[in-house]
Write a structure and sequence with these properties.
It is a single chain. By secondary structure, this protein is α/β, with parallel strands linked by helices. It has a domain at 37-98 and 121-174 and 204-271: Rossmann fold. It contains 6 helices and 9 strands. The protein has helices at residues 3-20, 59-74, 87-93, 133-138, 146-155, 240-259, and strands at residues 23-32, 43-46, 50-53, 78-79, 160-184, 190-214, 220-225, 228-233, 262-271. The strands form 2 sheets. Strands 2, 3, 4, 5, 6, 7 and 8 form a 7-stranded mixed β-sheet that branches. The protein is flat and about 75 Å long.
């Protein structure tokens, strides 16, 4: 019997055995270690965030509320219940960079002769102070102020402090988009055909940077950055808050994975 013949016979035997074998699946979980060692901390403080972009929602408040809620439900940390810090204002007080520029709303209370109206009220002098994404980086000096974070940690019994920056703004893109359209032939059979069409789409970009600080020393332990975007047809009117939560839903699992162990669920096939 030649070698090739032996191989063919062996394969035939294995195939017949496999055909008569019963299989069953069992669920398995593979544990993943957290990105950050948090064994020294029992308490966690979501302090507040330096924010920029759109002012349609208060991303500082909404981000702090959402992360606190997720940690209470999905971690063993004792979440500190404290007022959310207006960190943007504190970063400005500690030394606003000269390069950081904020867009100012045009005011119509200047007459044609160039003289400003003397009776300018508070509403007329309101200034839209929204930092660009580049300006946020210029305000990150606050995260290097170890004495500030150490003092904050002492106030709340040395927790793990979560802070950072959040940039949330409108976004639009135009171009060719491929979509699927259902069509039916003359026999009533359904088919799906790809169709390319030009579309104006609008949506939002969310770019948070989470910074984890040791409340005992004020030192930064870990930093992670995310960026997500979502686009809708220009005819679709989606509230900013809904888009924000939809984008945050994509980021929360990674955020939680930084702090606590996760597991990947799967199945394993065994022979009876």
């Amino acid at each position: 019997m030649t070698v090739s013949t032996r191989v063919i016979v062996s394969l035939a035997i294995l195939t017949s055995i496999a055909a008569c074998t019963n299989y069953y699946e069992i669920p398995v979980e593979t544990p993943l270690r957290p990105k950050l060692d948090t064994s020294d901390f029992q308490r966690i403080l979501i302090a507040g965030f330096v924010i920029g972009g759109s002012d349609e929602i208060d991303t500082n408040l909404e981000t702090a509320r959402l992360l606190r809620s997720q940690l209470r439900s999905n971690s063993e940390f004792q979440v500190v219940d404290a007022d959310v810090i207006e960190l943007t204002a504190i970063a400005e007080e500690q030394g606003e960079p000269a390069q950081a520029s904020r867009p100012v709303e045009s005011r119509d209370n200047v007459d044609q002769g160039g003289e400003a109206s003397a009776n300018i009220n508070d509403e007329a002098t309101a200034v839209e102070e929204n930092y660009s994404e580049d300006d946020l980086e210029l305000l990150e000096h606050i995260f290097a102020n170890t004495s500030y974070w150490r003092q904050l940690g002492e106030e709340f019994q040395d927790p793990l402090i979560v802070t950072g920056t959040v940039y949330f703004t409108t976004h639009q893109r135009s171009g060719m988009v491929t979509r699927e359209r259902e069509i039916y032939d003359e026999f009533g059979r359904r088919q799906v055909a790809p169709i390319r069409a030009y579309r104006d789409r609008r949506g939002y970009v969310l770019s948070p940077k989470f910074i984890f600080i040791d409340g005992r020393t004020g030192a930064t332990l870990y930093t992670e950055r995310h960026r997500e975007e979502i686009l809708y047809d220009s005819s679709q009117n989606t509230p900013a808050l809904s888009s924000y939560f939809e984008l945050m839903d994509r980021l929360v699992p990674s955020f939680l994975g930084t702090l606590s162990a996760e597991s990947i669920r799967g199945t394993r096939i065994l022979l009876k």
